[in-house]
Every structure is written in C-alpha cells, then in structure tokens.
Specification:
By secondary structure, the protein is an alpha+beta fold. It is built from four helices and nine strands; from the N terminus they run ββααβαββββββα. Strands 3, 4, 5, 6, 7, 8 and 9 form a seven-stranded mixed sheet that branches.
Length: 178
C-alpha cells in the first residue's frame, strides 16, 4: 500500500485492490476483497464531501453512493458547499483539508457487503486533536464497491466523537504520515 496526497488528505492506494482509476479527481475500480472494500470506503467517503467542490462530490455521490438517503446526501452536500464557498468561483474546491486517517475496525465483510468504522483526526480548538469515527457501509454493485449513503443523508449521522484510536486497526505510518 502506498499513500498519496489528495488536497491535504493522505489516501491509501494499492496496485492489487485499487483504486484502478483516478481520473478527474474521482476514484473507482476496487477489488472485490476486504482491502478493496476498505479502500473504496476511504476514497468515496473522502470525495463525497463539499470540500472538493461539485466537480468532485457530485459525480462521486451520483455514481458511487447508493441507498435511499443518497439524494439527501447530494442535496445536503450542495447546500453546505454553497454556504461555505463565499466568493469562490462556482465549482472551485474550498481549499486543503487538515485530516489524517488513523485507523479502522471491521463490523462485517462478505463479497457482497461490507461495514467498517473509519477513524479520522484533525485540528480542534486550543491545538487539540479531535477524533471521529464514521460508520461506512458498502455494497458490491455493477462490478465495484458502492458506499451506502449515511442515515439521514449526512456524514454527521454516521459519525461520533472518540477520545483515541485505541482498539482500532491503525493504518501503516499513521495514515501515510512519515
């Protein structure tokens, strides 16, 4: 596994498990393996975020997020982007992200479905590190992993604050940090 910068977030890549396509800031082509599901969860969840602008989050959510709350996720992400973009040209990214992927824990895996908790960390108030765990569920569909939209159509509905990443499988090199 190698790690590469994606606008401030260091993401994992595997020649065997994916993503095999990363054109246009999108990521697809994941193996039907536990590692492929993990990589899909990371890449799709990161890209389905207002931070990167509609050129990234719209096709990511439209093509790679499924389930009854997918339209709500797309609408909420558009609304958040419009609120945060200020005077940026429509479609521009909101800037770099300051988050590190620290680890994960499997909730379940089969060749057709997967569920995991993903731990991320970022800056908080007073130079404190803030950690969150986000539940991500996936389904194998049309020869690739698809993320099932979070409950209520917001990532906040699938996330909770945690004090540490203890008890989770740590990513090598602390999520790609050297």
């Amino acid at each position: 596994m190698t790690w590469r910068d994606y606008h401030g977030v260091t993401l994992p890549y595997s020649t065997a498990d994916g993503p095999h396509s990363t054109g246009g800031d999108l990521a697809s082509g994941f193996a039907r393996t536990p590692s492929g599901a993990l990589l899909a969860a990371v890449h799709v969840a990161v890209r389905a975020n207002a931070q990167w602008g509609p050129k990234v989050f719209e096709p990511t959510i439209t093509k790679q997020v499924i389930g009854p709350d997918a339209p709500t996720l797309l609408a909420a992400t558009r609304q958040l982007y419009d609120k945060r973009r200020g005077k940026l040209h429509d479609g521009a990214a909101l800037g770099r992200a300051y988050v590190v992927l620290e680890g994960f824990r499997w909730q379940g895996y089969s060749p057709d479905t997967a569920s995991l908790d993903l731990v991320s960390a970022g800056p908080g108030d007073s130079d404190m590190t803030v950690r969150a765990v986000t539940r991500i569920q996936l389904q194998w569909q049309n020869d690739d992993w698809r993320v099932i939209a979070p409950p209520g159509g917001t990532w906040g509905g699938a996330a909770a604050s945690i004090a540490s990443a203890d008890g989770y499988i740590r990513f090598p090199n602390g999520g790609g940090r050297s």
